[in-house]
Write a structure and sequence with these properties.
The complex is a heterodimer of chains A (344) and B (332). Chain A is α/β, with parallel strands linked by helices and 344 residues long. In chain A, 35% of the residues lie in helices and 23% in strands. Chain B has 332 residues and is mainly alpha-helical. In chain B, 75% of the residues lie in helices and 3% in strands. The chains are: A alpha/beta (344), B mainly alpha (332). The complex binds adenosine-5'-triphosphate, iron/sulfur cluster (SF4) and magnesium ion. The site of magnesium ion has 4 residues of chain A, from helix 1. Chain B: Belongs to the binding-protein-dependent transport system permease family.
């Protein structure tokens, strides 16, 4: 994210709204970020903050398969390698899917088709974009299966998803996503459904592969720990907006938003007693239909009273507090630094 | 797989034995309770007691029930001789005995009637599968559209109208009023075109009922499948939507349809009574109705066995197909 020319993915003022019977769900409401080739962005936020909706919007997956349900209303700009996607013809976006940008989902078991062998599914992903023979696609799929660390890939090619363990299934998903050498890989909570020990292996794998393939990677998670070692940059989402964004080390060591403080507070830490380790942000995530006025976080923010009413009345702008480090909070930066220091 | 099939076939034989035992038991008890005498039935109205006694001995009706049952089963497998002294009649395997009413052997009656019911069921089944599944898929893909609402209203009518009503209506309109189609049974081997033409009306009527159920089932299943994660994965690969539907959604949608199909097809062969009666087709259902009112035990037994065999066989085929379609199903 240093040089404009390196920017590979750029999202500007993205809005994804769903008309429902209860009202307009503003799942994503004015999100902007940039990502360069070979870099990793971690998107962090609670359940329902709009992380998946964002990634599906980038993939162009909100438009397809709505079949009569209220269609998502998408506005803003998404540029992938210079090509604008939100206003593009759906079929040209489809052609980019799987080839230029690929996605890994949270639950590898339900994300793989139960009736087809993993090999068939990976080959299929390759053959959509490459006019090759079955045999050639098989060779490619086996190569990828081996690359993601599946033992005896040639034999496992013909196995069905249910014959794999959770971690191995996620490796299969990763192989499928990487089979076309995409420039952008989105991993939506890739380890949430896995055992803790397996989680670390999958994260290591993603990091290794990124170095090898040089793709831009977005890792989505509600657990800051997951992106701690993986991400170059971190974007913290709350109620469909970005509340803080910046280089990972800055967001971890000098976080500038009370919500980020809460997330960091809920991370397991070695230097704390077990009993005080997990303190999630108190209160429930806000409604996305009637988003709280002003700062959407104010009903849950312990510092809202320090801003003289601004938190309740005015939406805080995303402001640059240090180089490439942005946060949206009315508190004066000096106060924020003081509160954060005091809380440690 | 092979071991599984063998095991299932053994189970089929056991089940059929149970079915015969139960049917045999029930229809042996009925004449006892109502005071009817099969031998007298067989001998005709004005027979003298010695003739009746002779028939009773020849048919083995004087033996204990268990012995009669054993002889019946043996006759099915190896054929049997009916003997009263020097008067011997051989009944070749599979011997279902002789009708008490018409004194004709039962097996030829069954082989006569079976193709009618089978043609009726299979033809209707093909029709309702095509129409029902097609309608269901289209409705799912155009949810809320005029097509969807019209089709689902028609389907609601289809499932709620009884077969004799739609059957009579169809007959009244197409046969008696318009003279387009008459219902008759011509064996397929004799003239396939006449076979199809003669059965078209009952097929349509039957298919209307079932197509309605299948359309609703298919629509609901399809909508559920389209929300599955693996459909999203298929789209994320960059597959065009028609491919996603055909290769990924449709195959998964077919599983529950297949299950129901096996049950329906089996039940239809066993119970096409209403349709056959409505259209005066001489199938198994008609034979069963007559046999029951005549207390014609051998015919009842025969029809029941054939129907049971079909229900069980259809289920076996469905289970095997299921395993072919869904690799997670293990045949053990
Ligand atoms: N098709 C849709 N129609 C209506 N609302 C939707 C739709 N898709 C998502 N939403 C809503 O948008 C909000 C954000 O959903 P999203 O899946 O992006 O959350 P998330 O941050 O990924 O959370 P999680 O950690 O649980 O995956 C949720 O409140 C969800 O109910
Ligand atoms: S703007 Fe106010 S409510 Fe929002 S995070 Fe800052 S202090 Fe808290
Ligand atoms: Mg999500």
């Amino acid at each position: 994210m240093t040089d404009e020319s390196e920017v590979f993915l750029s999202v500007r003022d993205l809005k994804v709204h769903f008309p429902t019977d209860d009202g307009l769900v503003k799942a994503v409401d004015g999100l902007s970020f940039e990502l360069a080739r070979g870099r990793t962005l971690g998107i962090v936020g609670e359940s329902g903050s709009g992380k998946s909706v964002t990634s599906l919007a980038v993939m162009g997956l909100h438009g397809v398969g709505q079949y009569g349900r209220g269609r998502a209303r998408i506005s803003g700009e998404i540029h992938l390698d210079g090509q604008e996607l939100t206003g593009a013809d759906p079929d040209s976006v489809r052609r980019l899917r799987g080839r230029e940008m690929a996605m890994i989902f949270q639950d590898p078991l339900s994300s793989l088709h139960p009736y087809y062998t993993v090999g068939t599914q990976i080959s299929e992903a390759y053959r959509v974009h490459h006019p090759v023979t079955k045999a050639a696609a098989r060779t490619r799929a086996v190569e990828l299966l081996g690359r993601v660390g599946i033992p005896q890939p040639d034999r496992r090619f013909d196995d069905y998803p249910h014959q794999f363990s959770g971690g191995m299934r996620q490796r299969v998903m990763i192989a499928m996503a990487l089979v076309n050498n995409p420039d952008l890989l989105i991993a939506d909570e890739p380890t949430t459904a896995l055992d803790v020990t397996v989680q670390a292996q999958i994260l290591d794998l993603i990091r290794d592969l990124q170095q090898e393939f040089g793709s831009a990677v977005i890792v989505i998670t509600h657990d800051l720990g997951v992106v701690a070692e993986l991400a170059d940059d971190i974007l913290v989402m709350y109620a469909g907006r970005c509340v803080e964004r910046g280089p990972a080390e800055r967001v971890f060591y000098t976080p500038q938003h009370p919500y980020t403080w809460g997330l960091l507070g809920s991370m397991p830490r070695f230097d704390r007693e077990r009993s005080e380790r997990l303190t999630p942000v108190r209160g429930a995530p806000p409604s996305l239909i009637n988003v709280p006025s002003g700062c959407a976080f104010h009903p849950r923010c312990p510092h809202a009273d320090l801003t003289g009413g601004a938190s309740r009345s005015t939406v805080p702008e995303l402001r640059e507090v240090a180089e490439r480090h942005f946060a949206a909070c009315h508190l004066p930066v000096a106060d924020r630094n003081r509160i954060w220091e005091a809380s440690r | 797989m092979l071991a599984y099939i063998v095991r299932r076939l053994v189970a089929v034989v056991v089940m059929l034995l149970v079915v015969t035992l139960v049917t045999f038991g029930i229809f042996f008890l009925v004449p006892k309770l109502t005071g009817g005498d099969p031998a007298a039935l067989f001998a005709g109205r004005q027979a003298d007691p010695t003739a009746i006694a002779g028939i009773r001995r020849k048919l083995g009706l004087d033996a204990p029930v268990i012995v009669q049952y054993a002889r019946f089963i043996w006759g099915l497998v190896a054929g049997r001789d009916y003997a009263n002294g020097a008067d011997v009649t051989h009944c070749a395997a599979p011997c279902f005995g002789y009708s008490f009413k018409t004194e004709q052997p039962v097996w030829p009656l069954l082989t006569d009637r079976f193709p009618v019911t089978f043609s009726l069921a299979v033809g209707a089944c093909v029709l309702w599968l095509v129409v029902g599944v097609g309608t269901g898929v289209l409705s799912a893909l155009r949810r809320g559209s005029l097509w969807d609402r019209t089709a689902m209203t028609a389907a609601l009518a289809g499932v709620s109208l009884p077969i004799y009503f739609t059957g009579m209506l169809a007959l009244a309109v197409f046969t008696y009023k318009l003279h387009w189609l008459t219902v008759s049974y011509v064996p397929f081997t004799q003239n396939p075109f006449a076979w199809a033409r003669g059965l078209l009306l009952p097929w349509i009527v039957l298919a209307f009922l079932y197509a309605a159920m299948y359309a609703r089932l298919t629509r609901a299943t399809m909508l559920e499948i389209l929300g599955e994660d693996y459909i999203r994965t298929a789209r994320a690969k960059g597959l065009a939507e028609p491919v996603v539907i055909r290769r990924h959604a449709l195959r998964a949608t077919m599983t529950p349809v297949l299950t129901i199909l096996g049950l329906d097809l089996g039940a239809l062969v066993g119970g096409a009574i209403l349709t056959e009666t409505t259209f005066s087709l001489q199938g198994l259902g008609q034979a069963a109705v007559r046999a029951i009112s005549d207390q014609d035990l051998p015919v009842i037994l025969g029809v029941t066995l054939v129907a049971a065999f079909f229900v069980i066989a259809a289920n076996l085929v469905v289970d095997l197909l299921y395993a072919v379609v869904d690799p997670r199903v293990r045949l053990t």
